[in-house]
Amino acid sequence: MMSTPMQWWIAAALLVALELTSGTFYLLMLAVGAVAGAMAAHLGLGAPLQWVSAALVGTASVYALHSMRKKRINPAPGANRDINLDIGSVVQVDAWDDHGEARIRYRGSDWQARFGGKGPLQPGHFRIKALDGNTLVLEPIAASATAPAHAQSGPHSS
Asked: Are the CB atoms for 40 and 28 separated by under 8 Å?
Protein backbone atom coordinates (compact mmCIF):
# COMPACT_ATOMS: atom_id res chain seq x y z
CA MET A 1 0.00 0.00 0.00
CA MET A 2 1.19 3.48 -0.89
CA SER A 3 1.93 5.97 1.90
CA THR A 4 -0.56 8.76 2.58
CA PRO A 5 1.85 11.62 1.68
CA MET A 6 2.56 9.90 -1.64
CA GLN A 7 -1.18 9.76 -2.38
CA TRP A 8 -1.45 13.50 -1.77
CA TRP A 9 1.55 14.18 -4.04
CA ILE A 10 0.03 12.05 -6.79
CA ALA A 11 -3.27 13.92 -6.41
CA ALA A 12 -1.39 17.23 -6.70
CA ALA A 13 0.46 16.01 -9.80
CA LEU A 14 -2.80 14.86 -11.41
CA LEU A 15 -4.43 18.22 -10.71
CA VAL A 16 -1.43 20.00 -12.28
CA ALA A 17 -1.66 17.71 -15.33
CA LEU A 18 -5.38 18.42 -15.67
CA GLU A 19 -4.65 22.13 -15.30
CA LEU A 20 -2.36 21.97 -18.32
CA THR A 21 -5.35 20.92 -20.42
CA SER A 22 -7.77 23.53 -19.05
CA GLY A 23 -5.62 26.66 -18.71
CA THR A 24 -7.82 28.30 -16.06
CA PHE A 25 -5.45 28.12 -13.05
CA TYR A 26 -8.27 26.96 -10.76
CA LEU A 27 -7.11 23.34 -10.81
CA LEU A 28 -3.62 24.60 -10.03
CA MET A 29 -5.02 26.26 -6.91
CA LEU A 30 -6.61 22.94 -5.91
CA ALA A 31 -3.22 21.30 -6.49
CA VAL A 32 -1.81 23.76 -3.95
CA GLY A 33 -4.45 22.47 -1.56
CA ALA A 34 -3.33 18.89 -2.24
CA VAL A 35 0.24 19.93 -1.46
CA ALA A 36 -1.04 21.26 1.88
CA GLY A 37 -2.61 17.86 2.49
CA ALA A 38 0.71 16.20 1.68
CA MET A 39 2.50 18.52 4.10
CA ALA A 40 -0.03 17.70 6.81
CA ALA A 41 0.57 13.99 6.14
CA HIS A 42 4.35 14.51 6.36
CA LEU A 43 3.81 16.21 9.73
CA GLY A 44 2.00 13.09 10.94
CA LEU A 45 -1.45 14.66 11.24
CA GLY A 46 -4.44 12.34 10.93
CA ALA A 47 -6.54 11.95 7.80
CA PRO A 48 -9.29 14.37 8.92
CA LEU A 49 -6.76 17.16 9.52
CA GLN A 50 -5.08 16.42 6.19
CA TRP A 51 -8.42 16.83 4.42
CA VAL A 52 -9.23 20.00 6.36
CA SER A 53 -5.86 21.57 5.55
CA ALA A 54 -6.18 20.59 1.86
CA ALA A 55 -9.71 21.97 1.72
CA LEU A 56 -8.86 25.23 3.51
CA VAL A 57 -5.74 25.95 1.47
CA GLY A 58 -7.38 24.91 -1.81
CA THR A 59 -10.51 26.96 -1.14
CA ALA A 60 -8.49 29.99 -0.04
CA SER A 61 -6.32 29.73 -3.17
CA VAL A 62 -9.33 29.48 -5.48
CA TYR A 63 -11.00 32.41 -3.72
CA ALA A 64 -7.82 34.52 -3.97
CA LEU A 65 -7.49 33.77 -7.69
CA HIS A 66 -11.14 34.53 -8.31
CA SER A 67 -10.87 37.82 -6.41
CA MET A 68 -7.79 38.86 -8.36
CA ARG A 69 -9.46 38.13 -11.68
CA LYS A 70 -12.62 39.96 -10.65
CA LYS A 71 -10.66 43.09 -9.66
CA ARG A 72 -8.73 43.20 -12.93
CA ILE A 73 -9.97 46.03 -15.12
CA ASN A 74 -10.28 45.01 -18.73
CA PRO A 75 -10.25 47.96 -21.10
CA ALA A 76 -13.01 48.26 -23.67
CA PRO A 77 -12.06 46.72 -27.03
CA GLY A 78 -11.69 50.18 -28.57
CA ALA A 79 -9.10 51.13 -25.92
CA ASN A 80 -7.28 47.78 -25.70
CA ARG A 81 -3.73 47.93 -27.10
CA ASP A 82 -3.74 44.14 -27.50
CA ILE A 83 -6.57 44.42 -30.02
CA ASN A 84 -5.69 47.69 -31.75
CA LEU A 85 -2.05 48.53 -32.29
CA ASP A 86 -2.83 52.16 -33.20
CA ILE A 87 -3.47 52.96 -29.55
CA GLY A 88 -0.52 54.89 -28.16
CA SER A 89 0.58 56.28 -31.54
CA VAL A 90 1.22 59.99 -31.79
CA VAL A 91 -0.54 62.22 -34.31
CA GLN A 92 -0.49 65.92 -35.19
CA VAL A 93 -3.71 67.95 -35.00
CA ASP A 94 -3.55 71.23 -36.88
CA ALA A 95 -6.98 72.58 -35.84
CA TRP A 96 -10.04 71.56 -33.80
CA ASP A 97 -13.61 72.52 -34.69
CA ASP A 98 -16.16 73.89 -32.20
CA HIS A 99 -17.36 70.36 -31.32
CA GLY A 100 -13.93 69.03 -30.32
CA GLU A 101 -13.41 67.15 -33.57
CA ALA A 102 -10.70 67.33 -36.20
CA ARG A 103 -9.67 65.82 -39.51
CA ILE A 104 -6.11 64.48 -39.33
CA ARG A 105 -3.65 62.63 -41.53
CA TYR A 106 -2.55 59.30 -40.06
CA ARG A 107 -0.90 56.32 -41.76
CA GLY A 108 -1.35 57.83 -45.20
CA SER A 109 -5.07 58.59 -45.02
CA ASP A 110 -7.49 61.08 -43.51
CA TRP A 111 -9.15 60.18 -40.20
CA GLN A 112 -11.87 61.72 -38.10
CA ALA A 113 -10.57 62.49 -34.60
CA ARG A 114 -12.31 63.47 -31.38
CA PHE A 115 -10.82 65.09 -28.29
CA GLY A 116 -10.93 62.65 -25.40
CA GLY A 117 -8.67 64.35 -22.92
CA LYS A 118 -8.73 67.20 -20.46
CA GLY A 119 -7.65 70.73 -21.06
CA PRO A 120 -8.01 73.30 -23.82
CA LEU A 121 -8.53 72.41 -27.48
CA GLN A 122 -5.26 73.54 -29.00
CA PRO A 123 -3.39 72.25 -32.05
CA GLY A 124 -0.40 70.05 -31.36
CA HIS A 125 0.67 66.48 -30.75
CA PHE A 126 -1.82 63.99 -29.36
CA ARG A 127 -1.74 60.32 -28.44
CA ILE A 128 -4.40 57.92 -29.71
CA LYS A 129 -6.28 56.86 -26.59
CA ALA A 130 -8.97 54.68 -28.19
CA LEU A 131 -10.93 54.02 -31.34
CA ASP A 132 -14.67 54.63 -31.47
CA GLY A 133 -15.71 52.95 -34.71
CA ASN A 134 -13.35 54.59 -37.18
CA THR A 135 -12.94 57.78 -35.15
CA LEU A 136 -9.67 58.26 -33.28
CA VAL A 137 -10.10 59.41 -29.68
CA LEU A 138 -7.11 61.61 -28.81
CA GLU A 139 -5.54 62.84 -25.60
CA PRO A 140 -2.86 65.52 -25.26
CA ILE A 141 0.71 64.50 -24.50
CA ALA A 142 3.75 66.26 -23.09
CA ALA A 143 5.91 68.11 -25.62
CA SER A 144 9.02 66.07 -24.73
CA ALA A 145 7.36 62.78 -25.75
CA THR A 146 6.52 63.82 -29.32
CA ALA A 147 9.87 63.85 -31.09
CA PRO A 148 10.45 60.12 -31.76
CA ALA A 149 6.86 59.24 -32.68
CA HIS A 150 6.02 62.34 -34.77
CA ALA A 151 7.00 60.60 -38.00
CA GLN A 152 4.05 58.18 -37.64
CA SER A 153 1.47 60.85 -38.45
CA GLY A 154 3.30 62.79 -41.13
CA PRO A 155 4.01 62.01 -44.79
CA HIS A 156 6.44 59.16 -45.26
CA SER A 157 9.40 59.52 -47.58
CA SER A 158 10.53 56.54 -49.58
From this structure: no
CA angle 83, 99, 135 (to 5 degrees): 20
Q: Which three-class secondary structure state does DSSP give residue 112?
A: strand
| E strand or H helix that includes residue 49 | helix 47-71
**pTM of full prediction above 0.70:** no
pLDDT in tens, 78-130: 677 777 778 888 999 999 998 889 999 998 889 999 998 887 888 989 999 88
Spatial CB neighbours of 10, under 8 Å, sequence gap ≥ 6: 2
Q: Helix, strand, or coil here: 127?
A: strand
Residues 6+ apart with CB under 8 A from 54: 8, 33, 34, 36, 37, 40
Cα dist. 90→25, 108, 119, 138 in Å?
38, 14, 18, 9
**Phi and psi (nearest 5°) for 40?**
-65, -40
Task: Enumerate the domain spans of the chain.
Answer: 4-71, 77-152
How many angstroms from the chain centroid is the CA of residue 57? 26
Helix, strand, coil percentages (3-state) for the chain, rounded to 5, are 45, 20, 35
- In CATH, what class is 77-152? mainly beta
